[in-house]
Structures are given as C-alpha cells and as structure tokens.
C-alpha cells in the first residue's frame, strides 16, 4: 500500500486486526504526500488533520519518518539541534521524540546522505526524505602521511572498509578476509593455526630481498598484520604502484598496506558496547590416497604387522574446537573520544599438537585541547599468544607402514615407539610425547600528536612517536621415552630459546591544506622519518635429567652441562637505522585536473657509506573527464577519471649482517702461504659495493562510477623494472675467505593489469544484491644477469631421493617457468624416456643437465576474485569465490609416491593403478606437470539481524546471528591435494611435502557467531 499510494503509516498505541482494516479503508482517501497515524479510537488521521487540530503546547511528542527513494532508512540519526536529545530510526524508519519544544530544529543525518534540518513548529508528525550525497560517497582515502578525497587520487589505490572485509568471511582472520578482494594481491596460507601468511602484490619485486608489502598500522610503518584483530579494523588502503608508494621510499618496493584501526567518536556522552563471539569446528579433507594395510601386505612391500592404520588420519585432531570473543566499548563527547577493546581467541588446528591461545587489548583515544589547537591521539596495543606448533610430519604419515599401529598398551606411554629406523617412525608418538610451548608477546604504545597552527589556516604539524616490543619464547622437552632419546640412550632433552626485538619510530611532518578561489586545491606535506631496529637472542640445550617432570623449567640440572657438552648460544642483532626526509604536493584545479609529486631522500645503515643514501620520487596526474562540459549531457556517467603515474622506490629488506664483518670460531682461515688453518676469523665475505635494489614503475589507470554510483570500478596497466637485484653468488677461494658473497647481480621486469568492477545489481526496498569482481594478470622475466652470473638453479626437490632442481634463473628466462626434462614416453620395461637438447629420444639414464628446458609456468594467466552480498530485510548472505586460470603445478606427490619400489615406504594407490606401468627411477620431467586451474568457493555466510530496541527497552540495539562455511569446495582437474600452491617466489609452484612446517592438510571450517550491539 505504501508503494502504490506513496504514503506512509505510523502505527498508534494499539495494534489489532480492526486497526489494519481501518488502515486499508483509509487508503482510498490517501493523498500522495500524507503521513497517516491512528488515534486512541483506531481512527485513521492524516498528518494535516493532526497539525490543524492539535492544541498548542510548549513541549510535545514528535514522530519522524525517515526514508530515501527505496523506502525506510534504518539507523538514521535524529537529534534536536544543540542538545543531546535524539534517537536512531527503527526498522520502519521511525523515531519518536518526547518533550520537544515548538521552536526546536531537528537534524536528520545518515552516512552517505545529505543531512537535513527541519523546524518542528506545530508539527507532530514529520516525514523526511534523505538524498544521497555524491561528495560523501567519494570517500576519503589514506595515502600515507595524510589522506585525500578519492576523487583527487592519481595513483593505483584500492580501499576496503570494515564491512567489505566481512563479506562472506565471518570467522576468518585479517589475511583470509583480504583473500580475493584486492586485484593483484596474492596470499598463501597453509591453514595451520600457527601459520603466517605470505603476501605478494603485483608479482615479484625481488628474488631474495623482502617481497611482501610494507604494513603501516595507524601511521606506524613496519607493523605486523598478525598483531591485529579483525574486529578492531576500520579500513585498509592498498598502495599498489610506484607513484603511491614512493613517499615510503625503500620499504615500498612491494607496495604498501595501510591499516587504520577504529577510534572513538562523538556518542553524545553515551557508551556504545559491542560484544561478538564465534565458535569454529575444522575438518581436514582431500588427503592423499595411500595403500591400506591390507593392500600394503598383499603387495609385499614391507613387514606385515597385522594392523590397518591410516597414519594421515591418526595425525588429525578430530576433536578440535576454536572460539573467539571480542568486546569493544566506545565513548565520546565533542572534545574527547575513547575506543577500547579486549579479545580472547582459542584456535585449534586440524592437526594434533597444533594450536594457540591469544588474548590482548587495544585503547585508542582522541583529545582536542586549547580551543582545538592541539589534538592528541594516544594508543596502546598488547597481544600475547601461547603456541603449540609441533609441526606434525604429514610426509612421514604418508610413507609409514600402514600395518603398524601407533598405539601399544604395553608401553608406559601408550604409544608404539620403535627405534633405529631413521626414515620410519611413529609420527603420532613423536607429536604427542614432545612437549612444545611457545609464547609471542607484542606490546606497542604509540602517541600521535597533531598541532593545528591557527594563525595560518590549513597549516598543521603532526608528530608520531611509536615503540614496539616483541618477545618470542620457545620451550621444548623430549622425555626419555621419546624415540629421539631412546635412540641416543639419553634421559631427556630440554631446549630453551628466547628472542626480543624492539622497533622505535619517530616521524613528524607539516601539512598545509588550502582551497583558493573555489577553483584551486592544494595539499602539501613535508617531514622526516626515523626508524631503528634492535634485537637479541639466547638459546640453550641440555640432556640427561634425573626426572622428566620438571621439563625445561630446570634446564640446568641436565648432566650435559656439568660434563661440558651442553649447547648454548646468544647473540645481538646488528642495529638497523633508517632516516629520511620527504615531501609531497597534491594540486587540483576545479577537481578536474589533478597533479601529484613526491620525493624522499633516505639513508640506511645496512649499506656502506658510499651507497647509503638514495633518492626516491614519483609524479602522477589525473584528468576527471566527467567534469568537462561535453560530458554534462551524459547523465549516466557520475565520475570518469584517467590517471598516469611514475615512481621510483627501493628495497633494503635483507639481513643487516650481509654488510657486517661477522667474526666467529670454527672457521677455516687462509694463511699467507696459501694453506688453510682452523681458527677464529671472518664468517662471510663483505661486499662494500652492495647497493639498493631499485624499482621503477609506471601505471596507467581509469576510475569510473556510473548510473548514480550503482556501478563503479577501475582498470590499471603497469610495468616495472627492478635493478640491482641482490643475491648470494659463488666466489673463488682464494682470494675470498668464504665461498659465497652477496652481490647485485642483474635486473628483472614485471608487467600486468588489473580490472575491478562492483555495484548493486538489484536494489529494491527489501532486497539488495551487491557484487564485486576483480581480475588481474602479471608476468615477469629476468632481464639481465651481470658478470659471471650466467644462471642460478633453484626449487630443489630434496626428498625422497634428492632428484634435483626444477627451476633456473638466467637472462631472458620467464619467472615461474619450470626448468625440467621433456617427457618422451616409456620403454618396454617401464623406464622413462626423455628428449635431449636436440629433441632426440634418450633413456633417462643418459640425460644431462643440458637436456633440460623451460616447460610450463606456475604463474596464473588470470586471477579472479568475486564476492556477492545479498540482503533481504533482516537476512544477509555473503559468498566469496576465487579462481586461478591457466597455470601449471608440478605434482611432487605423484612423482615421489606414485612409483613402486620405494623401499619399505608406503605409496599411493595409483602406484598400483594408473601409474603401475612405471617401474624405473623417478624423473623431474613434465610428465608430472598438471594444469592447476581451479574455482574455489572460499566462504559462504548466512546471517540474520534481530532489532532488539523495543524488546529490551533500548538496552540492546540489535543482535546478529550468523553461520559460515569456509573453504567450501574446490573445482579443479588437478589430481594432487591442493592446486593453490605458493607462487610468491621464483622457485615455487609445487606441493613441497618434504617441508614439515609447510605441508598441511586442506582445512574446511564451520563457524557460528553472534554480535550484540548495545
């Protein structure tokens, strides 16, 4: 009825069927702009009738209906101007205010809409229609050392708000929330409770130095994304190209991730409280199909112990249960606001002995003093984690004899522990009998002070002082009943390790923001940055204890210490310092023609005096075509901007010890007569000529917003060159003391493109379907290699059998290519046949390194991220999908365990199935190269929001209940475990099952959560 007659109904104090009948009858009298209400007798009254007949009174009750073009606006703020009297509109867009004077003015506001003021006068019912604010929708973007209106940005920057992070991924951490939402950003995470995440933005930027983007948290460079809780994040801005990142100089070669956490806001003196919890169950799936105990015995591979054990399954923690709790309080008045939060997380992995517990809190505050001359933004962040990450050996689980049992009731431990079989042991007993306890502690107080210099309007000075202390502890104990101790006839082994790092940051900068004559806008920043890093460590091992019960807490009591055989080590990291001065200017003419330039002069203590300082700069320009006169008649184009940028950044993210004269014992030293002597001396060859890695990048982009901002997105094309690549190369002895040295060896080129589009596909009063799609592609090559560095091999397959390397880096080689032999078939006996360099078919035994060639590539031709949000009234549904298209994965599991004759090791069922014809030695060839193309449903989240104000007398605003399934399914033709292998380096593209810290089951999660807003 509201839609047909363009009128609204405000329910009275009674609610009955007869009331509904009277409303329908009154419909025939409805005028287009009327608001209807019910009186005590259920009579239908128009707003004009009410206004004409209500007696004048000094104070009264006013009913306000807030709507936009689609219907009621929920959560709009209605306040009596100049007071704290107000409320928020309910699910019907209605606000009822009591004791309102006639001469009052109401202020109605909502994010993304133009605020309106309405005089009350004699009105008792007021209808307000909000209009979207196009300028507000052009949000502010954090650009580093300041912010800028999105419409004035001339660089490649992608921004996400807190709500964007939560689409489809409730129950996830920050890195998982970013997965698939940023074009060009690739992440690799194992699924372990203790695993970190590897980031790569726009392909490789180095072959050895740091490849991950710089993380800046609330203006504090060098932050650790793991120290944050997702619920505390307000926004994330990703600076992709050189023109955006050059202001950060040496640490921005791989891009910059700017994270802004939530801070206090003006709540009119009221306390806002939010509590959320999540409970998660994890499931391991898609394990390799190994021979069963019966099959192993039937094929007479090894001794038959009569059992049937699935070792992979035995390593899984089927009883895992994770939970997360977060409490946030917000309070504020005009001059002071505070946001504080506390959290607790218990995260159990899908593997035995893999889990952690985290707890901590954050306080962010804002204070305005001395008539707003001074703003102080102090913050304190603390987080502590207790870890148990034994890293169960799933490779060993694959090859263990399945006729053996992991348990032995006759053994005092309850486990079956067998000895003197170095490549065959009970992985379950190893995991459960070792005591592993680690602790991580983050402590980060920070003060951000802003001085507004009022005699010069628009001029301010901002000072940031930050200190970060991180401590890491590791406690391990292997009891006398552990395999390792029984094999060595020892009575226990205790290990303690401790490390501490400290980061000190001091940054200050002036900002001047001024609009001239309504046509010119200027935003200038200039300042300095200082960063210092220190660290120290200690470690000790001792053996043979009288009892096991005290473990590592009484490490001095082991007999190895008194016997002089205990191991101890300590060290202090080389102090790293970074100092720079910088400046940036942004200019806009009529918000149509945009210019930006920056420069940073920076010095690093990691380099010698001759190479310590360098300049990094950028320039970019933008043209908002939509502001031109010839575009005025193109009503469906809201904003259209073309931009071009060029920037130079550096990379010094390598160990400071590369440039230090490191001395140590246990070293062979060259004597003047040419003989080698065992003595104290240099442990590395220092290269005083080592210089910065330098990235030069240009970017061409287009931003667009169409159809009343219903459709928006961007396109970017980039090309970058990285010079002075740092790598460890072989050098002759003599004249060098050691056989390797770090050198600048060449250059690399990377190019690619990104496309993003999003918008509301369907928007009605009750139903909205929003979608965001991003596509990206990049490719790279080694452009030059200098001196004697004609090639470098990598990606060694180390186990079992050490079959060799599968990657080579040489001038002109494509990043991501496999350097392997070309498969030619099998001979009659099942041995591999290969092609030699002249394409002749040869037996595998006759192959040489020169017969290898570049085959396939693990870099996807296209990476797709696609997220959807559906809302129907109080229901919401989020779906995240990702796809990597047209890339290759080397199936190392098939190569190593798909062949018969591996001694007593268990093998894949396929070794006696589709690979049964293979009888010879394994070969690194393209027979095991597979198309890894996949489509993943990363997560599906279904939620329901319950409005609770009227049921709890305004104590609880709303409650949201939701459920999430993570890692729902993977559609792929790849026959291995997981086609989503690590691609964040030049020697990746395989499932490296021999790396016990990185080979982990695929994990599916089931999460239930609730959020309470008070």
TrEMBL record:
| Similarity section | Belongs to the TonB-dependent receptor family.
The name under which this protein is listed is SusC/RagA family TonB-linked outer membrane protein
Q: Which NCBIfam families match?
A: OMP_RagA_SusC (TIGR04056), SusC_RagA_signa (TIGR04057)
Species source reads: Parabacteroides goldsteinii
Q: Where is the TonB-dependent receptor plug domain?
A: 150-256
What membrane topology is given?
Multi-pass membrane protein
Cited Pfam families: CarbopepD_reg_2, Plug, TonB_dep_Rec_b-barrel
Cellular location(s): Cell outer membrane
Q: Which GO terms describe its cellular component?
A: cell outer membrane
Residue stretches spanning the membrane = none
* Main localisation: membrane
Keyword list, A-Z: Cell outer membrane, Membrane, TonB box, Transmembrane, Transmembrane beta strand, Transport
Q: What residue stretches are annotated with the TonB-dependent receptor-like beta-barrel domain? A: 494-879
